[in-house]
Amino acid sequence: MLRRGLAICLLCVGILSAGKGDFHRSMSSSPTRLNPLLATDSASASIADWIFDGLVKFDQNATIIPDLAESWRFEDNRTLLFHLRKGVRWHDGKPFTARDVKFTYEFMNSPKVVTPYKSDFKFVDRVEILDDYTVRVHYTQPYFKALSIWMMGMLPEHLWKKEKDPMRSRLNKLPVGTGPYKMNKPFGINERIVLEANENYFRHAPGIKRQIYHYIGDPSAEFMMLKAGKLDIGGLNPLQVTRQVDAAFRERYAIYEQPSQSYTYLGFNLRLKKFRDPRVRRALSLAIDRQEIIDLLFFSHGSPCYGPFMPGSAVYPKDFVPEKYDPRKAQELLVQAGYGPKHPLQFTLVTNTGNEIRINAAQIIQQQLQRIGVRMKIRTMEWQAFLNTVVFPRNFEAVLLGWSLSLIPDAYSIWHGDGDRKGGFNFVGYHNPEVDRLIEESEKIVDPKAFAEHYRKIFRLIVADHPYIFLYIPNSITAVSRRIRGVSPSIIGIEHNFIDWKIKD
């Protein structure tokens, strides 16, 4: 405790010595590479987002709009033409041109580069430069991500073409982009990172002139810094916001709350006889009171989850009405399936250690299922052992896990039958030929409205099949200093318009 207290005191001194116009935030780990094509950890990705721009981006309503591209159009369903903005400059003053777009694509596909983002560009055949500010992208087939993959940050050709070892390049420590913020010195391990406003940013100069990331590896220490008023933004958990913040904290911070972009689910092993019966799966879904779980685990700071896609997005059916908690109907279905007091349904639910929320959710579900005579045992395992000996070998009856929710979902890996293979993400063994057909058709749809229509059908089919019990979506709770003006939360997050934020005088 003494060492932690000393660390927090030293951090306070560092923050107090910074300028009053600085914006202070925390990071729980040091970034590895500040390169949008190589950033796979959250710290690297979040910081790189301030430094680099893509050709397109989401607006506050999750609609794709121009970014470094001034406009675009599909010449046909396999050819996409971009007209780039003129006058955009890299942080070192060099102009951004079509050569940078082509180079970024070629960098992505270099044998020297290891990145999971390559798969998003699997249907790109080639990138053609028509002139300094016009790029034509050729695809091998129509592709529903043809436009959205170009949210990837662009790299400056004039700097990166000189690098022989891109994975270890100094540019990953001291990046140069076109974004609203820039760095003036390379970062070190567990050191604070300072981002300076790009006064020549093509949209407009950011209202906040400096962002300072402070390394705080302990969540409780971050909360202490927030309570002390030393950070301008920070996440809160339900217990903190319900029981541990006082009137003084609320005077200092505005608290913004919205659904997170993730959900937790109970997944069945559909290869087992007991779970091949749809009446059993539906009965268990009806027997689980999702709101009770949310009230107990999150102090009501969450919402029930009823399907695989993000509520409020274009792919979520607006007229969808979920089945409500109904233990009596659940018991009737179990009786129809041959289960009762003399022959109760029994199974084991496996989840991972290190996630108390998930373990507590399993215990609540266990109690709820007992009410209808179902005997569910709980088994917990260390994360890697859980994945390697239970999940991927399909050595389970039921699992408790979670997935992220995307504004433009890709259902193939989780819900297509091809995913039911070694190393695949369809580890529950879900197979529905109609879902497979719709997913395959959707991959080749360029029009976003037609794509959304297909995905709404996929949503309804999956929900009707009950391969999962979709459980809950926890809320994301963020505290922002009241000295900040211009905050406007949206479906894509609270900081979508950060360059418009200003610090009150």
Can you characterise this structure?
By secondary structure, the chain is of the alpha+beta class. The chain is built from 16 helices and 20 strands. Strands 11, 12, 13, 14, 15, 16, 17 and 18 form an eight-stranded mixed beta sheet that branches.
List keywords for this structure.
alpha+beta, 8-stranded mixed sheet, 4-stranded mixed sheet, 30% helix, disordered N terminus
Provide a brief overview of the structure.
Helix 9 (278-287) packs antiparallel against helix 11 and helix 15 (433-442) runs antiparallel to helix 16. The longest helix is centred in the last third of the chain and has 18 residues, at 448-465.
Q: Roughly how many Å apart are the termini?
A: 37 Å
So how many helices?
Answer: 16
Radius of gyration, whole Å: 25 Å
**What percent strand?**
15-25%
CATH architecture of the domain at 262-475: Roll
Mean of all residue-level pLDDT scores: 94
Query: What is the name of the CATH topology of the domain at 262-475?
Result: Dipeptide-binding Protein, domain 3
> CATH H level of the domain at 262-475: which superfamily?
Dipeptide-binding Protein, Domain 3
Shape: globular
**Structural class, please?**
alpha+beta
CATH level 1 class label of the domain at 262-475: Alpha Beta
Low-confidence stretches: 1-18
Largest sheet: 8 strands, mixed
**Helical content, roughly?**
25-40%
- Please count the beta strands (DSSP E, at least 2 residues each): 20
